C-alpha cells in the first residue's frame, strides 16, 4: 500500500508556474522548451528545498520539536529556506555552514541572518558534518532539536518531489501538453530521488535527466550510489514494492567543471542567455550549470525537434549576489 499521508506544514505556495520559453526555443532551433518555476515557491526567494521543508517542519511539529538544525555551504539555498520555514513556524533555527564568517555577509548568508538563524561555522566541511554534535549540545540546553540532513535529502525530504510530480502531472493535463524530457540540477539527491519515485507512482513517461553538480562523495559513497540508496530508502518509506537500479537514473556528469561552486564559462553564458531572452535568473552554482548543460545537449543534437523538454528551475537566485566578480 502506498502511504502519502505524512504530516506536512504549508510554508510555500503551490503549484509553481509552468510556462513555455518561446523566445529561447526560437533562438536555439531545438526542441520546444518549458520551465517549471520552483524559484517561485514564495518562501524567502524560493527554491526546491521549500517542497522538502513542508514535510520536515510537519514532522518536527508533530514530534513536539522546538528547534531545527541543518547545514550546508556558506551560500546554501537549503539553509536559507530552512531559516525562513523555521521563522514562519515559530521554531528556532541552527545552521552549520562550511567555511568561516566573511566580513560582509552577502546573498543567502545575509538572508540567514535577517531570518534570525543561529549560525555555527565549520572550517573543515560543508555538508553539515557538525549537526550531530550541535544537536547534542542543544539537547543539553533543554531544547528538542530536529536534525535535517544536508540538502534535506533523506526519505522524508524525498516526499516533496514525489508530490511535485503529482503537481506537474495535473498541470500538464490542464495544459493538454506532453513532456518528453525533464532536465534539472542533481546534487544532494532528494530532488532526483523524489522525481524518480513520483514518475513511477504517477505513471509518467518522460526521461528524467539529472545534471550532476558536485563530484564530492556522500558519506563514503559515490554520487550514483548515494542516489540509488536514497531512492530505495524512499521507496521503502512510501511502501513502494519495487527495487530501483542504476538503470532507473540518467545522470550527466560531464558538466562538473571546476567543482562545486566554481563558476566557468558554461554557467556564465547560460545565466546571461536565459536572463536576456526570457527575463529569468538562474543561479551560478546549480541552475546555471544545469541550464548550461541543457543548452549544450540541445546544441549537440541530443533531442529531436518534436521533443518537449521541461527545465526544472530549482531556485538559488540569491547566491548570484555573492558571485558578482565571477559573473561580469
Ligand atoms: C539544493 C539545490 C539543488 C539540488 O537539489 P538536491 O535535492 O540537493 O539534489 C538544485 N538547485 C538549487 C538551486 C538547490 O539549492
Task: Explain what the structure shows.
There is one protein chain. With 328 residues, the protein is α/β, with parallel strands linked by helices. It contains eleven helices and ten strands. The chain has two domains: 18-47 and 155-327, Rossmann fold (3-Layer(aba) Sandwich), CATH 3.40.50.1100; 49-152, Rossmann fold. The protein has helices at 22-28, 49-62, 77-89, 107-114, 131-140, 158-175, 190-201, 223-238, 265-278, 287-299, 324-327; strands at 18-20, 32-37, 67-72, 92-98, 118-122, 145-147, 181-186, 207-212, 250-252, 308-313. The strands form two sheets. It has a six-stranded mixed β-sheet, sandwiched between helices. A four-stranded parallel β-sheet has the order 5-4-3-6, sandwiched between helices. The longest helix has 18 residues, at 158-175. The site of pyridoxal-5'-phosphate has 20 residues, from helix 3, strand 7 and helix 7.
